[in-house]
Design brief:
Layout: H1 2-7, H2 13-24, H3 31-36, H4 38-66, H5 74-93, H6 96-114, H7 120-142, H8 154-184
Length: about 190
């Protein structure tokens, strides 16, 4: 929650959902949130502390009851989860489009999981996409639509280099291992 509230960058899928809820309520997390409404942060952290205490109590008391969910056959459990997901996505804005977005996101998440990708980047992309687009539009206004001027700052170049290194690290690492293997062979 600290990176989510302090920087507006979610550290997990759960934090991304919380970030989306804050943005829906016109609360933009980041440095301005700390300056303008510190009492809001005290309330959030107090609520998190109380919620953790309640989770402890409910978890200790109800562990035996909650463990019985494993006895429900998967043929009944998964359709129930699917029905509740459809109802929840429709109930938010009474829009069938939201249901289609939920189904497409679920399918994409399943394919990503099947091929070894994490779902957290997908969730963060869906939630942070609009925020990134707004920030980019503001940058284009500041730089008179000259996007190449963004790269005049060394911090931007450093983050771009780190991003490219992170994206291409599997290829670079494989190439370095091959070179190390060839150097070790006589």
């Amino acid at each position: 929650m600290v990176p989510t509230l302090a920087l507006g960058i979610p550290g997990s899928a759960t934090a991304a959902v919380i970030l989306a809820a804050l943005i829906m309520h016109k609360i933009r997390p980041g440095p301005h949130l700390l300056e303008k409404t510190p009492e809001f942060l005290y309330v959030i952290f107090g609520a998190m502390f109380i919620a953790n205490l309640m989770f402890l109590v409910v978890g200790l008391v109800g562990a035996k009851v909650f463990s019985r969910i494993t006895l429900i056959p998967k043929t009944l459990l998964w359709p129930a989860v699917f029905v509740f997901a459809v109802i929840g996505s429709y109930a938010f804005a009474s829009s069938v489009f939201d249901v289609w977005v939920m189904l497409a996101s679920g399918l994409l998440g399943f394919v990503m999981l099947r091929h070894g990708f994490g779902q957290a980047p997908l969730v963060m992309g869906l939630i942070l996409g609009r925020l990134v687009e707004e920030s980019f539009s503001q940058s284009m206004i500041i730089y008179d639509n000259a996007w190449w001027r963004l790269f005049e700052r060394p911090i931007v170049d450093a983050f771009l280099a780190l991003t490219l290194l992170g994206l291409f690290w599997p290829l670079v690492g494989r190439g370095l291992r091959r070179l190390a293997g060839k150097a070790g062979d006589p």
